[in-house]
């Protein structure tokens, strides 16, 4: 039987942000993976590189940058 897949998107922020260190963010992603995997899920942490493979990435990036 194939495991269900849970995905998230993560881009590390050099030096950390939002009151959390860079290592703290990495620890949080690891805890996220461990929690889902403990319940039998396969996890995928997607990155900007993954997002850039989408055929509409440039269109969405432009739309989001104009919303600022």
Nearest-integer average pLDDT = 93
> What spatial form do the alpha-carbon principal axes imply?
flat
Provide a count of the helices. 3
- The largest sheet has its strands arranged as 1-2
Distance between the termini: 45 Å
Strand percentage: 5-15%
Residues in helix, % = 40-55%
Strand elements, count: 2
**Which stretches are low in confidence, meaning pLDDT under 50 for 5 or more residues running?**
none
Describe the structure.
The protein is α+β, with helices and mostly antiparallel strands. The protein has helices spanning 22-38, 48-52, 57-66, and strands spanning 5-9, 42-46. Strands 1-2 form a two-stranded parallel sheet.
For this entry, give a set of tags:
68 residues; alpha+beta; two-stranded parallel sheet; 15% strand
């Amino acid at each position: 039987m194939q495991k269900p897949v849970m995905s998230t998107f993560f881009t590390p922020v050099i030096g950390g942000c939002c009151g959390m260190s860079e290592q703290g963010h990495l620890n949080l992603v690891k805890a996220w993976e461990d929690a889902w995997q403990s319940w039998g899920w396969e996890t995928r942490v997607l990155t900007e590189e993954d997002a850039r493979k989408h055929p509409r990435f440039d269109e969405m990036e432009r739309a989001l940058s104009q919303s600022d």
